[in-house]
């Protein structure tokens, strides 16, 4: 459900894993164009889909008879989308989140929104996350990801359905940690994009990435995550990929901020979702609700929503009181 960059690339992954896929596209004209040309020109023009992928804009047709329901819409529209789709959701099928965000207002993770709106039990929701820049996956460059779900049978089923020659899924029972890692790395990537834009080098970006991972793990553990998850693909793996790549929309958004562009200007110039821009606020509120200190997220939030400059953020971060690395 969703034919943006990742929805389309993941449809190709599943097809290359031998799974028949029906991909739902919101706009009928795009669905028709992809079905006919086998190419999603709006999001991933370099990828040619095989005949295993059928494309439709009809929700009932997309969900009818499906064994696994994969969701790849922007995090902030998921609730509204699911409310409209509820009656078509197939009985018993696992619901898989490809999304990396935290809902504004409710501060819920995507699988929590899925459980609530689709009225499915916690053991039916799954998250797939890792260092998976859509363009590289679409180019079939080898990569791996984490498939996290509380029930062994559910995570194995989803892992099997997406195990392609160039895409290696690992399983993990830690849904909370996998989702928190995916959502927070987008905010850290915004900060690294800004640092690059300001001409900072590897020491600065490695510091942001490492301390960013520390605050991500701090939040995850406070919410019940397994600390080991943050050392894995969804944690350090995705942090490295997103923070270091110019293909990352969050990184690009950070670069544009460092050039003095406004959030509105940057948002208007793209059809792509940089999840960290909105989730920054919900992550900060979530952290405050469990008394977790997230200074980098706080700094990015201050730039995006409170009118700070990147220089002010640097000064604030560097003048914090000294503390143990372990805290
Ligand atoms: N692109 C990547 O490399 C990548 C990799 C892993 C995870 N993700 C995550 O996957 C999720 C989807 O990202 P994407 O890259 O496919 O985004 P995208 O911006 O490329 O595409 C978003 C899709 O959602 C659709 N959409 C927009 N508003 C909608 C609405 N109100 N209702 C339904 N559909 C709507 C768009 O038409 C588009 O098809 C995000 O949470 C992102 O963080 C992306
Ligand atoms: O382009 P971004 O910044 O949304 O990042 C894409 C993926 O999440 C990388 O794993």
Automatic annotation (TrEMBL):
EC number: 1.1.1.94
Glycerol-3-phosphate dehydrogenase NAD-dependent C-terminal domain location: 174-314
InterPro entries: 6-PGluconate_DH-like_C_sf, 6PGD_dom2, G3P_DH_NAD-dep, G3P_DH_NAD-dep_C, G3P_DH_NAD-dep_N, NAD(P)-bd_dom_sf
Catalytic activity annotation: sn-glycerol 3-phosphate + NAD(+) = dihydroxyacetone phosphate + NADH + H(+); sn-glycerol 3-phosphate + NADP(+) = dihydroxyacetone phosphate + NADPH + H(+)
Glycerol-3-phosphate dehydrogenase NAD-dependent N-terminal domain boundaries: 1-151
Chief site of localization: cytoplasm
Binding site for NADPH: 5-6, 26-27, 43, 100, 134, 249, 275
Residues binding sn-glycerol 3-phosphate, per UniProt: 100, 130, 185, 238, 248-250
Assigned keywords, A-Z: Cytoplasm, Lipid biosynthesis, Lipid metabolism, NAD, NADP, Nucleotide-binding, Oxidoreductase, Phospholipid biosynthesis, Phospholipid metabolism
Active site: 185 (proton acceptor)
SUPFAM superfamilies, alphabetized: 6-phosphogluconate dehydrogenase C-terminal domain-like, NAD(P)-binding Rossmann-fold domains
Protein location: Cytoplasm
Superkingdom per UniProt: Bacteria
Functional summary from the UniProt entry: Catalyzes the reduction of the glycolytic intermediate dihydroxyacetone phosphate (DHAP) to sn-glycerol 3-phosphate (G3P), the key precursor for phospholipid synthesis.
HAMAP family: NAD_Glyc3P_dehydrog (MF_00394)
Protein name: Glycerol-3-phosphate dehydrogenase [NAD(P)+]
Organism from which the protein derives: Dermacoccus profundi
């Amino acid at each position: 459900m969703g034919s943006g960059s990742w929805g389309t690339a993941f449809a190709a992954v599943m097809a290359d894993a031998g799974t028949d896929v029906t991909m739902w596209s919101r706009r009928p004209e795009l669905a028709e164009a992809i079905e006919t040309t086998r190419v999603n020109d709006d999001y991933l023009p370099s990828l040619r889909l095989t005949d295993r992928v059928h494309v439709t804009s009809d929700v009932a047709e997309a969900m009818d008879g499906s064994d696994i329901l994969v969701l790849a819409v922007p995090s902030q529209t998921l609730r509204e989308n699911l409310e409209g789709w509820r009656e078509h959701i197939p009985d018993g099928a696992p619901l898989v989140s490809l999304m990396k965000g935290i809902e504004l207002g409710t501060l819920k993770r995507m699988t929590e929104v899925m459980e609530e709106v689709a009225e499915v039990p916690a053991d039916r929701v799954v998250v797939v996350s890792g260092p998976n820049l859509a363009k590289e996956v679409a180019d079939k460059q080898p990569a791996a990801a984490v498939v996290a779900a509380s029930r062994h049978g559910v995570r194995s089923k989803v892992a099997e359905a997406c195990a392609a020659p160039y895409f290696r899924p690992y399983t993990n029972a830690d849904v909370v940690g996998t989702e928190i890692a995916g959502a927070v790395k987008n905010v850290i990537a915004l900060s690294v994009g800004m640092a690059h834009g300001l001409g900072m080098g590897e020491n600065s970006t490695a510091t942001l990435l490492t301390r960013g991972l520390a605050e991500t793990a701090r939040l995850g553990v406070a919410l019940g995550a397994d600390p080991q998850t943050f050392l894995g693909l969804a944690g350090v793996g995705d942090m490295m990929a997103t923070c270091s790549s110019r293909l990352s929309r969050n990184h690009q958004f950070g670069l544009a901020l460092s050039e003095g562009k406004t959030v509105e200007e940057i948002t208007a110039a793209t059809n792509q979702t940089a999840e960290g821009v909105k989730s920054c606020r919900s992550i900060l509120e979530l952290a405050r609700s469990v008394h977790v200190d997230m200074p980098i997220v706080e700094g990015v939030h201050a730039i995006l929503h409170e009118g700070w400059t990147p220089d002010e953020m640097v000064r604030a971060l560097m003048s914090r009181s000294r503390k143990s690395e372990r805290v």
